[in-house]
Amino acid sequence: IRIKNIDEDNDITKAMKDETLGHAERLALVKLKHEALAVVQDPHKERIDEI
């Protein structure tokens, strides 16, 4: 999976602002975004398999 750009307009960020999501869903999105950022910054870094 290639992630070209992580910014305010991406789907993860939009989903994080979704008021209908519960706390657990928001935490999962935050973890996913951090993992995506880490992969972009260091493509050889081991990914988190379980969120």
How would you describe what is shown here?
- This protein is mainly α and 51 residues long.
- It has one domain.
- It is built from 2 helices and no strands.
- The chain has helices at residues 11-16, 23-41.
Count, helices: 2
Helix fraction bin? 40-55%
Tally of structural domains: 1
Distance between the termini: 17 Å
Low-confidence stretches: none
Strand content: under 5%
Report the C-alpha radius of gyration, rounded.
12 Å
Which structural class should the secondary elements be placed in?
mainly alpha
Report the count of strand segments.
0
Short description:
By secondary structure, the chain is mainly α. It is built from 2 helices and no strands.
